[in-house]
Amino acid sequence: MTGIAHLVGIGGHLRRCRLAACEAGATIVEFAMIVPVLITLMLGLIETGLLLTAQGILDGAATSAARIGSTGYTPANTTRSAYMANYIAGQAYGLIDPARLQVTARAYPNFSSIGQQGAGTVGYGNANDVVVYSLTYPWQGFTPFLGAAFGSITLNSTVTVRNEPPPPGAN
């Protein structure tokens, strides 16, 4: 027998194996090469799922907040802004930090004036005004590796509603 050889134990039996032709341990080396790629793909899928879930929560919160804002209802001892922020925070389920969420409202006299320069005013408007609610949230990611790779992603959601008229007999 020529070349370098060593003994390899397979199934309780020892046999001689040439070093260049020996495949003992090849599986573990291949596994070690594939595992980082698989883990990165799994973390990417999880991060993408969380990102899409956060966007869905933001869209739902924007719709609910716009509905609350359009009614003009404000509980005692609070402002409409604080009431809407607390309502959105209650729907965030821990994925969205209410302190980093930015909510803006811009009121217009009608739908055709949306987007025209100088047509809208910042705020919730009055009865029968059209209000555009915009929610913006800087998504940082949950996994440090992928968060560093992609940086901050801005999630946006915009909803347009017409404020309800006051109920009959209200001032």
Describe this structure in words.
It contains 3 helices and 6 strands. The chain is of the alpha+beta class. The strands form 2 sheets. The protein has a 4-stranded antiparallel sheet, with helices on one face. Strand 1 and strand 2 form a beta hairpin.
Entry summary:
By secondary structure, the chain is an alpha+beta fold. Helices cover 38% and strands 24% of the residues. It has helices spanning 26-71, 80-91, 144-150; strands at 5-10, 13-18, 102-108, 121-122, 130-139, 153-162.
Average pLDDT score: 80
The helicity comes to 25-40%
Main sheet overview: 4 strands, antiparallel
Task: Compute the CA-based radius of gyration.
Answer: 30 Å
Q: With helices defined by DSSP (H or I, 4 residues minimum), what is the helix count?
A: 3
List the strand order in the largest sheet.
4-3-5-6
Structural category: alpha+beta
- Per DSSP E runs of 2 or more residues, the count of β-strands stands at 6
Q: Secondary-structure element order, as H and E?
A: EEHHEEEHE
Q: Which of globular, elongated, flat, extended, rod-shaped describes the shape? A: elongated
Uncertain stretches: none
- Distance N terminus to C terminus? 105 Å
- What portion of the residues fall into strands of 2 or more residues? 15-25%
